[in-house]
Specification:
By secondary structure, this protein is mostly helical. The chain has helices at 15-35, 61-75, 78-91, 93-96, 104-107, 109-120, 128-147, 172-175, 177-184, 199-213, 259-276, 292-295, 302-325, 364-382, 387-404, 447-464, and strands spanning 45-47, 50-52, 149-151, 157-159, 167-169, 189-190, 196-197, 233-237, 242-247. The chain is built from 16 helices and 9 strands. A 3-stranded antiparallel β-sheet has the order 5-8-9, with no helix packed on it. It has a two-stranded antiparallel sheet with strand order 1-2.
Length: 477
């Protein structure tokens, strides 16, 4: 059956739940601020309700301090602005120049990017020196991210993951924000012999490569597979740039769908569709979708821009449809659509999710990410007079939000440092805490889950209060 959409919901109807979210969120941010020591590394997920670190890559630090900035955005409580701004300046510089990860959009847009956006929106006082600091950090971050580049057989390419140049992660779609903002403030990547490399071009090429190889459409090359399914990782042969096979690091298998990766795709494409609306068709380089003339500096035509949007929109709607069909009726997905013991749950898609079941964990963080993507995709389509699809995706996102903003997902226990319960990190590696008496992980939180619950809350909070529509690029969508 999948997600049962509630067409009665609106941001205004969810306002009491969102107010409660911010009340609970405040105490949890203060708790983490008081107990966390930077020498421990970045907090990643909770164990028995307390945040712990887990070495893999340092991709969650920005969510910690970005959460305080989102809290300030919603409540205007300057204590949270002080936390977010001070910790960003003190501790985030190494993330700006981090050459070893594909996570710049996660770490740096959530911190420097939020501060820059708040200043652009007039929510914090304008300060020329601060603005210059934020923009310099964002420029460097976008360029460093874009430098992690592998060229493939057709001459385009992708930003490779921390696994190495052969590896394309679907997660990176959400990190493309770093390239978008760096391009927006006028930056380029300088290559050998002073070659000027367009960050916008690399953004669009990466997104198009992901759409081509990391997402299935049930036709053509993918006739054997299901429309909207995603691969966590796509592997390429570095000798000739040819695509070789799908793979998965955090999912069950290369031929099942890890639902957080699916959610990254939904939100990543929806946000980039919003970003494309800010381009007037005269910006440099449209990547895979542009003619060679555009790559040499000539402005792309309206037809090129239309082709770019079509690729992004097809990827967004395919993944959104797959999410709706493969979630429980309340909008919460299992951690992977091919997890080995799902058959033990019976017809689990015909009923609300049970995070306390004894066979397979749900992933609330995937739901929080997907909910925002569904709402943004719906809003994008509604603005283009596609009321049928737009309303469907938007109301689906509101339905997921309605579930997440209440128990058993919203953490009301004041002793638990997490905000969003029943998040899963890395099931194959066995990193998630399993409580005594339980067979699978549940009851714990993650930094990305908590952060995206707050981002979702802020999106709906502003709409319910008739305030500015929030975008990562700080402008109208």
């Amino acid at each position: 059956m999948g997600l049962r959409i509630d067409h009665r919901l609106s941001a205004q109807r969810l306002l009491p739940k969102i107010e409660r979210l911010w009340e609970l969120s405040a105490a949890k941010i203060f708790s983490l601020e008081q107990t966390w020591r930077p020498a421990q590394g970045a907090p990643v997920f909770t164990v028995k309700g307390r945040y712990t670190s887990r070495g893999w890559t340092e991709w969650t630090q920005g969510f910690q301090f970005g959460s305080a900035l989102l809290q300030y955005d919603a409540t205007a409580d300057k204590a949270f602005l002080e936390i977010g701004r001070r910790k960003t300046i003190e501790l985030m510089a190494t993330h700006v120049s981090h050459m070893g990860v594909h996570d710049h959009g996660f770490n740096n847009i959530s911190t420097y990017g939020n501060l820059w956006r708040l200043m652009r929106e007039g929510r914090i006082p304008f300060n020329e020196r601060e603005k210059d600091l934020y923009e310099l950090a964002l420029k460097v971050s976008g360029a460093v991210q874009a430098a992690r580049w592998t060229t493939i057989a057709d001459g385009t390419g992708y930003i490779y993951s921390f696994n190495g140049p052969h590896s394309l992660f679907v997660d990176t779609l959400r990190s493309l924000r770093s390239l978008a903002v760096a391009h927006q403030v006028g930056h380029v990547l300088m290559g050998e012999r002073d070659q000027r490399i367009s960050l916008l071009q690399r953004l669009l090429e990466h997104a198009a490569t992901t759409a081509r190889y990391g997402i299935y459409y049930g036709k053509g090359r993918d006739v054997f597979d299901v429309r909207g399914r995603t691969a966590h990782e796509s592997i390429f042969n570095l000798n000739d740039g040819s695509y070789r096979c799908p793979n998965s690091q955090q999912g069950y298998s290369p031929f099942s769908t890890w639902t957080r990766g699916l959610a990254w795709a939904i939100l990543g494409y929806a946000e980039q569709l919003e970003f494309l609306t800010t381009l007037n068709g005269t910006r440099e380089g449209q990547g895979k979708c542009a003619p060679s003339g555009a790559r040499r500096g000539r402005p792309p035509s309206a037809q090129d821009m239309s082709a770019t949007r079509a690729i992004f929109l097809e990827a967004a709607t395919a993944t959104a449809d797959f999410y709706l069909a493969n979630s429980c009726t309340d909008g919460i997905p299992m951690w992977d659509t091919g997890a080995p013991f799902l058959h033990r749950l019976g017809d689990y898609l015909a009923k609300p999710a049970d995070p306390f079941n004894g066979w397979e964990p749900v992933d609330s963080s995937a739901a929080a990410i997907a909910a925002q993507g569904l709402i943004r995709l719906g809003n994008y389509l509604l603005a283009r007079n596609d009321e049928r699809k737009g309303d469907r995706y938007r109301q689906a996102g509101l339905t997921v939000a309605n579930t997440l903003l209440d128990e058993p997902y919203l953490s009301t226990n004041t002793k638990h440092q997490g905000l969003l319960l029943h998040s899963v990190y890395h099931r194959p590696n066995g990193w998630d805490y399993v409580a005594p008496g339980q067979k699978v992980p549940n009851g714990e939180s993650s930094m990305w889950g908590d952060y995206h619950a707050r981002e979702l809350g802020l999106l709906l909070w502003r709409e319910a209060r008739c305030e500015t529509y929030p975008t990562f690029f700080g402008g109208s969508a």
